[in-house]
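The data layer described in this paper is built around a simple, fixed record for each protein. Such a record has a labelled line for the sequence and another for the backbone structure tokens. For reference, a complete record is included directly beneath this paragraph.
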Amino acid sequence: MNSTQSNTQSFEEKLMNLLQFSGLDEDNLSELITIVSGLHDGGLRNIYVNPRGTPVIDGLTVNAVLEAKSLGVVLGDLVTKTPRLGGVSVFPYGIIAVEQVGVTIELGATVQQ
């Protein structure tokens, strides 16, 4: 096993340990953690993950900070390749010129018909 695989497993295990009492059933949580791990592997760093939904927890909210110059590539991949994507919002950081952006990603329950 190479170091990338062990880092990914470590990241997934840490998320599972942190979110095991979030109120999400185990299968749903496992699937969402796999998605978040894929976002991490895709370049998102400094990720903060929290349960989403009131009163019923139905997904995860992922927050990250990106360099503004990489936003286009990351958003393109995020929107087209992320399953169970509920929404994405971007907030610019920088006084004169935007240097970094905060990204909030909603994962979980999709609209049911």
